[in-house]
Amino acid sequence: IEESYEDIQNKRKQLPAYKCGNEILNIVRENQVVVIVGETGSGKTTQLPQILSKEYGKKIGITQPRRVAALSVATRVAQEMNVELGTLVGYTIRFEDKTTKDTRIKYMTDGILLRETLKDSMLYEYDCIIMDEAHERTLNTDVLLGFFKNLLAKRRDIKLIITSATMNASKFVQFFPNAPNYIIPGRTFPVTNIYTRFPVSDYLESAIQQCVKIHMSTPLNEDILIFMTGQEDVEMACGMLMEKLIAVYSSKYQEDPDKLQNEICIFPFYSTLPQDSQKQVFKPLNSTNKRKVIVSTNIAETSLTIDGIKHVIDCGYSKLKVYNPRIGLDSLQITPISQANAQQRSGRAGRTGPGTCYRLYTESTFLFEMYKETIPEIQRTNLSNVLLMLKSLGVQDVLSFPFIDPPPKVTLMTSLYELWSIGTLDNMGNLTKLGTQMAKFPLNPNLCKMLINSIALDCTEELLIIVSMLSIPNIFYRPKNAEAEADKERARFYVAGSDHITLLNVYSQWRANRYSSQWCKKHYIIYRSMQRANDIIGQLRSIMDSIVKGNMRKSRRYNSNKTNTILGIHDNNTFSSWKNVRKCIVSGYSYKNIGKRVGLNKYISLQNGMPLQLHPTSSLFGLGDLPPYVVYHELLLTTKEYITVVTAADPI
Ligand code: ADP
Ligand code: MG
């Protein structure tokens, strides 16, 4: 059943934020900065901009820490305002701009707003900025907060609204001393937390067991939300849950095998899920005799609200980007959540009535092992990108930038050193020409450098593709029931010796097949990811063009319409024919991303001697004759330290 316009309006009017509209307008009128706190689902993200647009005529910008939230919420607000998305209401996320000059409510990621400050450091386009979900304390949020600290005095007419889902807003109030803290009165119901008696050894298995238990013992109109850490364990949990239920049902209801389908609907929920599937999760089921089970990453923690949840199962972990100083790299790691996260997850069960949260950890873990709050990203990440951005924002003295939580001086110095070592800063600490060019790209320094070097090496077209393919989530689809088949298809694209060029190969074959979705399906490639790669290529190409225009000497070598250098189907894809492309790839990585072979088939980090394993999905995996040196794009930390997206770097 589709929601009618009337339904939508009625639902809207029930939201606590909607009801406080006038009060909020008053307090914003009287203060330049306001900190607004409200329960998840109270309508902060969807209602605040609509409320403010009554009084603020220019443009209202709302930043989100997650792309998926910007997109999903903008869609919802367009629906509420009964306009087409991309007109009055729009969104901008990296590589995707759905706004026009008439857009008045613009959702965007915090990274986008940060980039906009590069073009206009006064943000004249806006008269209101809402920094939504500031409690997430992403790196971009923190830089923006520092930026606003300086901007507010220069633009007395701009309003800054900071929202936070957790009660811990004191940090923001301290940072902006005169800012009032407005609390949206919300009604939440008590949630009973149930801990395990002993630590669980396998949270996936335990979550499934718990879910089946709840399902067999509670009314079907009580929905269940399970928190997992990432796309892989979300998908895995969905599959395992189905299997387990089939087993239980077939012994219990032998006479009625359809009963399962009539009683339960299982939905995965994560940020790279196609939009249509995401919408399904929000839709109420067409019967109260049916239970929704949503298995989600922490996007359901505060970013997106799913109504009607009665039971939450919390695995106690999430995936965090962690800077590992030992190896000097960022990596995504499964990490214990903080107490604040745990409370937030519990809270999802108490939106419409009293609920229960099953915590798959002991009470003493919660009390004595978990951090009170997640450590802000800025304190656990590689700062190079931020510093590059600060430098290009004209911040000379980055060491005294007003960070809300200043990173350790040592980390700042290390990052500055790194930027200098790849040639982006000169000896005085100023941006070099390379650094200035690099700051124009919404990419990390490695990828920027490859792209810029491709001009001189005459392989820009190839590198545009490779870099774009590296900027999207995994393109290879590996469904549960067809893993072997999918792996076989994947191997057909391998260009021995380089996973980067393998990606290029996938793209060129897709292009040769007229960008067909059928082709993708046949080869277990995710069509949507490929389309995104295409968008990204377009955007990066226009940035490339703008750089080359300012450089006549080099423009001779670069022609954005050139397509004939890409080999067609893989018959001729020998490694040696990619000499320049490979040189260019290798040139992008610093000493931190180099592996050195020791013995026949083992690698160690050139930086610190740490053992590195080739990931089984690498085209180099299992080769008899491994190159003495490799560069790699990513380090994956599981039980072992795997390197993925690898290219041979031996001297040519
Ligand atoms: P908050 O930002 O305070 O957490 P939101 O403004 O995101 O709250 O959500 C308010 C309400 O709007 C919630 O009940 C939520 O379920 C609903 N909502 C938000 N986005 C969507 C969507 N894309 N589809 C359906 N309902 C939505
Ligand atoms: Mg919100």
Automatic annotation (TrEMBL):
The segment(s) forming the Helicase C-terminal domain are 199-394
Give the GO molecular function terms: 3'-5' RNA helicase activity; ATP binding; hydrolase activity; RNA binding
Localization (cell): Nucleus
Q: What's the Enzyme Commission number for this chain?
A: 3.6.4.13
List this protein's GO terms for biological process: mRNA splicing, via spliceosome; protein-RNA complex organization; ribonucleoprotein complex biogenesis
Question: Chief subcellular site?
Answer: nucleus
**UniProt KW keywords:** ATP-binding, Helicase, Hydrolase, mRNA processing, mRNA splicing, Nucleotide-binding, Nucleus
> What is the enzyme's main class?
hydrolase
A cellular component term, taken from the record's GO annotations: spliceosomal complex
Which chemical reaction does it catalyze?
Answer: ATP + H2O = ADP + phosphate + H(+)
Ranges for domain Helicase ATP-binding come to 25-185
**Family indicated by similarity:** Belongs to the DEAD box helicase family. DEAH subfamily. PRP16 sub-subfamily.
User: Protein name, please?
Assistant: Pre-mRNA-splicing factor ATP-dependent RNA helicase PRP16
Organism phylogeny = Eukaryota, Fungi, Dikarya, Ascomycota, Saccharomycotina
Covered part of the full sequence, start to end and full length, is 443 to 1094 of 1182
